[in-house]
Amino acid sequence: MPSRTRPSPLPPVGVVFVHGMRTSSAIWHHQLDHVRDAGHDAVAVDLPAHGARHTERFSMPAAFEVIDDAARSFAPGTPVVVVGLSLGGYTSLAWAARHALGAAGAGGTRLAGVVAAACTADPKGKPVALFRDVARATVAGRDALRRGATDLALAWRTALVGGGGPAGGADLAALLGPAAGRASHTGSGAHRPGWDVVTDALTHLAGRSSVGHLRSIRVPVWLVNGARDQMRLEESRHLRAAERGALVVVPQAGHDVNTDAPDAFNHVLTRALADFSRA
């Protein structure tokens, strides 16, 4: 019988995982194991004001430096893939657009592709400051926290689409991070940021366009959303903006698509890395 030739393994890449608001690098443990088992190098970063960097204040330039450092941590010449969720997705798209313009901080990094999850609602041109200000008011009036969370959902929905009902409570909680309120430490000692980071993050997102960033990026971009995420408001517009893009909607998952459906998300990662290797 003729022997069967096994498919050649994909060339290894370095994968940088970037978490969402008020979480940390810890959300990526399923994905880190998955891509490392496939023979790739990988690192999950903590954004400023989160995780090991909780004493720092969030800003987009500081977040870019974090991704720059992670991209430079791989062996010289290793193609880099950036995978971001929510705030991390917006930050990754902005970083990749900056990279396309030849920003010095990228240090000659060869970008192979981007996976941007839960970030297909463009903040530019919308009253994002409204959401920021409601967040500030909620922090100041903690006795009205439950009412404030509802106001935040309505403000966010209004800011993005100009009206309509509030986003689902579960999706809002995922967007802002667990246990909304003041900064705290969990029983395991991990730091959990307070809502003050929301105001900083939205201040730095205001005026930036995820659609504009996609138009600038010259590598493949995979957009990934959970089917139950009510924040997936402008998927088609984002997909059209990508020079070479793909959109995957994961059934039964919400905003935190990588933890709601880790096996499905890992399958998407496998497909995306294969696509990037052909670029």
UniProtKB/TrEMBL annotation:
<protein>
    <recommendedName>
        <fullName>AB hydrolase-1 domain-containing protein</fullName>
    </recommendedName>
</protein>
<dbReference type="InterPro" id="IPR000073">
    <property type="entry name" value="AB_hydrolase_1"/>
</dbReference>
<feature type="domain" description="AB hydrolase-1">
    <location>
        <begin position="15"/>
        <end position="266"/>
    </location>
</feature>
<dbReference type="Pfam" id="PF12697">
    <property type="entry name" value="Abhydrolase_6"/>
</dbReference>
<dbReference type="InterPro" id="IPR029058">
    <property type="entry name" value="AB_hydrolase_fold"/>
</dbReference>
